Amino acid sequence: METDFLVYNLGPEEQYRQETRERMSLLDARQVKCLISFVEWLREHPHWGEYFPEEIEEASRFLHALDA
Q: Which helix (H) or strand (E) holds 44?
């Protein structure tokens, strides 16, 4: 359940993107890269990768945009 919550928050819907960007701006580059690594791990995991692949992909896109 906590993993679901985290992934949904790392790939917010359009209406929540600005608020999430503001919250994520408190993280440094190393922390953002850690989250990217975690999301990439989820993508490859047998359970999580099949459970909600679209949400994982959205979280990955959002985090990479923050890292740019």
A: helix 29-44
